[in-house]
Amino acid sequence: MAQHDDASTPGSSIERHTESSPGTAVVTADAAQNPGFPPHEPRVTDVDPKADKKAERQVTTLFFLSLVGSIFAVAAYIAFPIVPGDLGSVRLNTALVGTGIALALLGIGFGTVHWAKALMRDTELVEQRHPTRGTEETRAKAVEVFTLGNQESGIGRRALIRNSLIGAAAVAPLPAVALFRDLAPAEDPNALLKHTLWEEGVRLTRDPDGSPIRAADVTIGSVFHVIPEGIREEEEYLEEKAKAAVLLVRLNPGDLNELPERASWSYDGIVAYSKICTHVGCPVALYEQRTHHLLCPCHQSEFDIANHAAVIFGPAARPLPQLPIAVDDEGYLIAQSDFTEPVGPSFWERERA
Amino acid sequence: MTTAPTSTPSTLPPTRTARLTGAAANYIDERTSISGIVKELGRKIFPDHWSFMLGEVALYSFVVILLSGTWLTFFFQPSMAEVHYEGSYVPLKGLEMSIAYASALDISFDIRGGLLMRQMHHWAALLFIAAIGLHMLRVFFTGAFRKPREINWFVGFVLFILAMAEGFTGYSLPDDLLSGNGLRIIDGMVKAIPIIGVWISYLLFGGEFPGTDVVARFYSLHILLLPAVLVAALGVHMLLLIINKHTQFAGPGKTNDNVVGVPIMPVFAAKAGGFFFIVFGVLTVIAAFFTINPIWNYGPYDPSPVSAGTQPDWYIGFADGALRLVPPHLETVIFGYVFSWNILLPLGVLPLFLGAVAFYPWLEAWITGDKREHHIADRPRNAPVRTAIGAAGVTFYAVLWAAASSDLIATHFGLGIEMVIHTLQALLFIGPVVAFMLTRRICLGLQRKDREIALHGFESGRIVRLPGGEYIEVHEQVDEYERWKLLAYDDYQPLMLRPNARGQITVGERIRSRLSGWFYEDRISPVNQRELEESSHH
Ligand code: FES
């Protein structure tokens, strides 16, 4: 509406445009004229007293329904208690109490809106806008307030006071930052991230029951979800499990393409890999037997178990760490050592000793 | 200040009730000067349009969240200490789990109305974020963020972020398998941040993941800190709305200098109040009949199992999708320090995208050099480049969002996951460009059509045979009130490159005039009065 671009309006910057920066609104000299307000159309309820009465009845009915709904909700709350162990009773209670409350709310809601639309005066009113900025007079007064404040306090003049205050205020939050240090224990988290419960001789056991796994029980193609023996007794059970979870599979030794330095890490085609995704740490739990691919359900990283768990697809950057395993004299699978690198997602000091 | 605000100009002797209300109002006013506020605000005008209700839906669902959330706090116990579940949900009986999870189960299965309230809280939260999103789109596409409302746009953006933070912290509280996995993903992402990442994660979880603190800490954030900031920001948002007054669409009699609509008292209050109850009621119906987040199916958190096809709540989807679209092997080690680009890339791109949203009003104002106040909402077609930018942004977001369901897309349509991901990767770059060009085209086409209709009317579909035997289709004129809606928009010209006060042309100015040219060069000018008069002579 170009006709409002008159330069005299305070808040409009047309006058500034013409001086410093070139303006952009084209003040169309011959802009189309606003036809003004259309005539008001009366509603049925305005002209027909019967319609008016009918709308009144409808509104009242809706409010009455609301009242019924409220009472119904309380009645249902009492009459349909939850029977322990019976899911049906939970569902019934939820549905009936919910229906009652919904009726109560919707009755009020629709009733009020209908009242407003059908019966309240519907002519539109006009209010003038004023420029958002204050009048020149008000602004001058505001400037005066600041000037007086400055003069009377001397904050502009007394640079030493002002700057020392700024310095003090800037440092004041420091103790608050320090106070957050004890959100976590004193140890260095980096050291914790580099170790798991696995160590030489620890048996590989089934997750979750903790029974040891005999190498002979691991048939070709089968998958075992593994935790270290004794993890259940750990104080920090979940924390340890979040690092130590392992996936065990047995491949046809001919299919296995092992790195020379890891040749002794497997046992007769049985390999163990960390189950914690090197992307952001989800458990990599979906094993596809045919392709030997391990899929992470979180962001679809794919690892090739036959090929030392190299990443073949998805956002992960590194292969899954391998756990060196062996067999003890009773035939049970054991770890040769801890993982030789940190498990799970990357972190800043991961590669540092 | 002694006049009661309810006094009416009637001449009848006041009834008993009127006298009572008068006395009560007088009592309050003599202690609060409230009559001043009532006089100022009571008859303030609110323009009406269906799209203005989106913000209202957000506000009302927030009220529902507060009410249902407060109720839930009376029963929920944010502790990660282990217990054996003894509640009435049989499949989990005797299992070891955190108190938080057990109490969330109790709310669902042992407390009357508990499941209703939990589901209402969750559904209302989803509606809250969805309504904020749609409200933002409405404000964006109609240019309602322009001066003097830029600050309020920013406050609204902050509310959007806070809402997502509330959603995420709330999602983590029940300590079920899914929420634990969500936390683990956050933990992994945080750890990738150079230098401080490991420490942030360590402090957040009170030790190694998962620790025993995070639920209680998130609980503090979820029910205390975040809501307090949210309510404060909401207050500012409403206050600025009152100060700036609402925008309105162009229409007969409406100008940039007036507000046309219904007064707060009584019509707007009745409609808005009624609408609150409707939103509340609809949420109750949904909560009563539609299961959301069935935590009992997931089991307690355990770092080992996870099921395929698990999805985060939809509003986190775009971030999850961004993680999925990164190609493999993006990590470098420099001097033994790890840079996990596969995480840092999305972590960097998302804030850029959100930052562009947050600061768009200033960006556009700089490009256009437009410093006037705008109170008439644009029809999206009348700002083709802005609309096209918006469409590009929406496409970008949508691709990220779709990527969060890449596995479901793959299984559902029987496609390989590789193919789905590669397609989405390509779409992430091509999609926004195509959307931009297409949208701008469509806008210009619609503008031309508007012009056509304004000048020559629309095709009525009625074919008449002229006396000469020739057939024509009758064009019908639109009435002048309808027509005004097609004409009423500003015309703009690109910024001209001009030397500044010191006679120099700065690089910044050059870029700016380029951008401004791009913003405005293809434009359809509004029909002017002369054209209108000429057309009416035919
Ligand atoms: S956590 Fe495995 S792909 Fe992201």
Account of the 3D structure:
The complex is a heterodimer of chains A (353) and B (538). With 353 residues, chain A is of the alpha+beta class. Chain A folds into three domains: 1-36, no CATH class; 44-125 and 135-181; 191-349, Rieske [2Fe-2S] iron-sulphur domain (Rieske Iron-sulfur Protein, 3-layer Sandwich), CATH 2.102.10.10. Chain A is 35% helix and 13% strand. Chain A has helices spanning 14-19, 44-47, 49-79, 87-118, 136-153, 159-171, 174-178, 189-193, 237-244; strands at residues 25-26, 125-128, 204-206, 223-228, 246-250, 270-274, 286-288, 293-295, 302-304, 310-313, 322-323, 325-327, 333-335. In chain A, strands 3-4-5-6-11 form a five-stranded antiparallel sheet. In chain A, a hairpin with a 6-residue loop joins strand 8 (293-295) and strand 9 (302-304). The longest helix of chain A is centred in the first third of the chain and has 32 residues, at 87-118. Chain B is mostly helical. Chain B folds into three domains: 17-43; 47-341, Cytochrome Bc1 Complex, Chain C (Up-down Bundle), CATH 1.20.810; 379-538, no CATH class. In chain B, the strands form five sheets. Chain B has a two-stranded antiparallel sheet with strand order 1-5. A two-stranded antiparallel ribbon of chain B has the order 2-3. A two-stranded parallel ribbon of chain B has the order 4-8. In chain B, strand 6 and strand 7 form a beta hairpin. In chain B, helix 4 crosses helix 5 and helix 12 packs across helix 14. Chain B is globular. Chains A and B meet through helix 1, strand 1, helix 4, strand 2 and helix 8 of A and helix 5, helix 7, helix 8, strand 5 and helix 10 of B. Strand 2 (125-128) of chain A pairs antiparallel with strand 5 of chain B. Bound molecules: FE2/S2 (inorganic) cluster (FES). The site of FE2/S2 (inorganic) cluster has 12 residues of chain A, from loops.
